[in-house]
Write a structure and sequence with these properties.
This protein is α/β, with parallel strands linked by helices and 235 residues long. It has 2 domains: 167 residues, 2-Layer Sandwich (Nucleotidyltransferase, domain 5); 43 residues, no CATH class. It contains 10 helices and 6 strands. Strands 1, 2, 3, 4, 5 and 6 form a 6-stranded mixed beta sheet that branches. α4 links the parallel β5 and β6. The longest helix has 18 residues.
Length: 235
């Protein structure tokens, strides 16, 4: 199975009001293994980034001014994701921008070029309800180092998300329950014999007689037959 972990950076929050994609990062996974065949492009959006967005990604208008425009990289992006399952954290955001960019060019929406989309934010909320499920929170939860992540970057975030996705979907590696008995250390477990052996200790005659006296007292109290009589073995 071929999967593509994808992330974007943008000039702002809303493509319908003119915000554009400025960076795309894709990480390829084939049969749950990272291949190293990644895709990364900076894009000239032909506009400035909002101050809030700039504080997140740090990609200035000057830096992006000599980068290709989206229509110049659209075909290679389409070819890279063609027929793959795409994995995105908070998919509606990135897909909203990519679909809009493709539609601006008169092309079918971006999602038409991949087989399906997995939203890892939805998966994380199902696995960890009521907890923080940002990419940073998931990295902490699954022991994935993100110490080098000072600003958001599409390729870096895709690489982190790929590790998170593989950890989050790893599942159980064995069908057996790993129960270990430290026989060499002695103690009660070592002396109990093989697991599954049942030891039956039968009551003595005087214990049975005392038990019957207790039941008789209960019978008298309820003026009939107490419930324990119904479940006591006969004979």
């Amino acid at each position: 199975m071929r999967q593509i972990v994808l992330d974007t950076e943008t000039t702002g929050l809303n493509p319908r009001t003119g915000d554009r994609v400025i960076e795309i990062g894709c990480v390829e996974i084939v049969n749950r293994k990272l291949t190293g065949n990644n895709y990364h492009r900076y894009i000239n959006p032909e506009r400035d980034s909002d101050e809030a967005a700039l504080a997140v990604h740090g990609l200035t208008t000057e830096f992006l001014s000599d980068k290709p425009k989206f229509h110049e990289i659209a075909e290679e992006l389409r070819e890279f994701v063609q027929g793959a399952e795409v994995i995105i954290h908070n998919a509606p955001f990135d897909l909203g921008f990519l679909n809009h960019e493709f539609e601006r060019m008169g092309l079918p929406p971006f999602v038409r070029h991949c087989t399906s989309v997995i939203d890892t934010l939805v998966q994380a909320k199902e696995l960890h309800p009521g907890k923080r499920n940002s990419l940073d929170a998931l990295c902490d939860r699954y022991g994935i180092s993100n110490a080098h992540r000072k600003l958001h970057g599409a390729l870096l975030d895709s690489e982190l998300l790929a590790d998170v996705y593989l950890a989050m979907t790893r599942g159980q590696n064995t069908l057996s329950m790993d129960v270990e008995v430290e026989a060499a250390g002695g103690g009660e477990l070592a002396e109990a014999g093989p697991l599954g052996e049942i030891i039956v200790v039968r009551a003595l005659e005087d214990e049975l007689a005392e038990h019957d006296n207790v039941l008789a007292a209960l019978d008298k109290g309820v003026k009939g037959e107490c419930v324990w009589r119904k479940y006591s073995p006969q004979g």
